[in-house]
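Subject: sequence -> structure tokens, single chain

Hey, anyone have a minute? Need the predicted structure for the following. Not urgent.
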Amino acid sequence: MFNWSSLPRPIIALAPMSGYTDCAFRQIVKELCPSTICFTEFTSIDGLKHGNDATLRQIFFNAEKERPIIAQIFGKKPENFKTAVKILEELGVDAIDINMGCPARKVVSSDCGSALLKNPNLAAEIVSATVSATKLQVSVKMRIGISKYDEDYFLKFGLGLERAGAKLITVHGRLAKQMYSGTADWNPIYELKKILKIPVIGNGDIKNSADVAQKLKNLDGVMIGRGALGNPWIFQEIVAAQQGKPLSPPSFETKIAVIKKHIKLACELFGEQHGILEMRKQLMHYIRGIPKASAMRQRLCTVSTEDQVLEILSILLP
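Reply:
Had a minute. Here:
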């Protein structure tokens, strides 16, 4: 059974990002760097409870190619977390992660995500209820605060999650009000690690292996989110650097080959219409910095078939 404490250090994880870290993207990441720990997209426990098709698509994974797979869920009612984890157990996920860090207005206005940082008792109750309903390990992803950083409050909040049964905490080093602006502050994460017995992972502004070398310090690992968009190679770069075997950046031809494979996977998994729709935003990240890409950007925003994308990529090839 999956156990956070027994994983080799440092843990290198792909962050759960709604609309991006779907089954196709995770398979690309795992193929490039098999040791990466992947989280599903940010998924509603209410959607799971009601069997919503879009929600089930978010949680879909390839058991052979993605394990261990961590299902990240959000909500606000402890009893609904109990129902959700039973569904996730039946689907065969390896662990559960509870989101207490999403700053999106729609999520926060429903008292979910980072809104839970205002209510440490409810946050602990959610963890406790989830733990009581499953044999799988339960972790939490959170931020350092909502509108200001209060060290005493933050550390007590983390301790409360540990006491409630969380087996790992990931901390994004920003306040919820910052969204994704400014610079992530990792110092609170280091302080939390000093007082917890469970593993702690840091998240925020990891763009390359040098960032990991600078920011890892006393932590058990790092989580990469936006730094992986358009750059799934970042994981193999980080692992190679940790092993003292730095890699050269992938060639242009290698990048194009991976993009094509990603497109093919998305179409196979979700059908061409939905797969290409999902790939549009991925392609915007992939082509950053590629010569002639700016002229193709508008066309890529409106593609609707795999052949159209492949035609544009052939133009980008030297």
